[in-house]
Amino acid sequence: MISTPIYDFVSSYARFSPSRFHVPGHKGVQLLGPEPLDLTEVGGADDLYAPEGIIAESQRTAAGLFGTAATFYSAEGSSLCVRAMVKLLLSHRPDGSSERILAARNVHRSFVSAAALLDADVIWLYPEASVSPVSCPLSPDALDRALAELPEPPAAVWITSPDYLGAMQDVSALADVCHRRGTRLAVDNAHGAYLHFLPEPLHPMDLGADICCDSAHKTLPVLTGGAYLHLSGRCPEAMIGDVSSALSLFGSSSPSYLILASLDLANAALAADFPERLCQAGEQTERTKAVLTKEGWSVRPSDPLRITLRTDGAAAARRLREGSVEPEYADPEHVVLMVSPGNTAEDHLTLRDALGSAPLSPPQVLFPPIRPERAMTMREALLRRRETVRAEEAAGRVCADISAACPPAVPLVMPGERLHEDLLPLFRHFGIRRIPVVR
Fold first, then answer.
1. Domain count, the chain
2. Residues 296 and 252 occupy one common structural domain
3. Cα–Cα distance, 193 to 265 (Å, whole number)
4. Share of the chain above pLDDT 70, in %
5. Facing residues of 102 across strands?
6. At 290, which CATH number?
7. Which segments within 126-233 are labelled E, that is strand?
């Protein structure tokens, strides 16, 4: 029987209903509904960034379910975990490694902000071929060559898998290369928390990653903001012991106990029938993909709980919304639909009806190679005075922020990089009209 100590505590506190002379200001009075369970660090509630009681117990349960050396909670999504991971990788780098991180270019903006704030030296890995700036496929041979060209191993290699389009990296092979070359593999697995609970686990921690983050709320029955930071047994004890401190460096001192309670309750679901329901959801998703393929839609390979269509994304999204379906993501050439056990068979029928049997063709676009010159460090660019100019006027200027990004949060140009005219078609394609630049 899986215990749920966080949920049990907040439920008991709500039932006991003491006079609340503590924050938050609603005092448990229901306006939206969940206020009685919305607590702060009252006596017995433990401390997320120095857990010794109910949070520590719940995190140990989660680690057991995921099969990790340690798992930590975040109430601020994977973005908080990403920032903590960058700090941990730099502070506890392997012996003989440099203070650099070798990162696939399609990083989330939270990685860029962390690297800038910590003044990390990032070397970018570019794809040999890619269908979109949000994807950066990386072969083990390409990674091996990139590592061989460095004078010393980096502190870590950073990849995103699955990415926003659902493309999955060969984590096992990439981990082997990293370990042979004396570095660690870090994975932004924000969209793949469920992968451990498949009949054949595909979670990065099952495949050899050293450290990774999951947005639990994206695919598990968890409130928005719930996330995990996982570490493997290959990480030193000092690194594991420093995780809470790294999280507190970037996180709020008032984490949501509603979110923490949902992570706690998810443990019970994951230990019960969720894996079976997950398997059924995957089978239903495959059937939907097969029907869409038969009707002429271009269905891209993706992780098991995602349907990615190569199409006129804007038109497809309009068609879906007119049919009472809200997609996860759409860009000019793709529309992405995320599935979970929470979707019913009727949902899938509604989706197929909304798309219809008249597939939409995507625009034919050739993405230029994005390899801007670095004019200054990311930290320098973020801290400089800036001005905002039209994209057409930005050529030759130095990017000053992370706002030149394609949806949903992958920067096309990094702070400190010099913009050039070849990027203008890409900016127009993704609707980027104005760009902050260094004054």
1. 3
2. no
3. 15
4. 98
5. 123, 157
6. 3.90.1150.10
7. 156-160, 184-188, 211-214, 227-231
Q: What is the mean pLDDT of residues 110-136?
A: 90
| Cross-strand bridge partners of residue 160 | 188
Do residue 219 and residue 287 come from a single domain? Answer: no
* pLDDT for 136: 92
Res 406: pLDDT: 65
The sign of the CA dihedral 322, 327, 329, 334 is negative
CB atoms closer than 10 angstroms to residue 181: 18
| 231 and 88 part of one domain | yes
Verify that 304 and 283 share a domain, yes or no: yes
Does 361 reside within a domain?
A: no
**Residue 99: inside a domain:** yes
At 184, is the secondary structure helix, strand, or coil?
strand
Per-residue pLDDT band for 361 (boundaries 50, 70, 90) equals confident
Which among 225, 232, 250, 133 is positioned nearest to 186, based on CA atoms?
A: 232
Q: What is the pLDDT of residues 263-293, one digit of tens each?
A: 999 999 999 999 999 999 999 999 999 999 9
CA–CA separation, 115 and 12 (whole Å)? 42
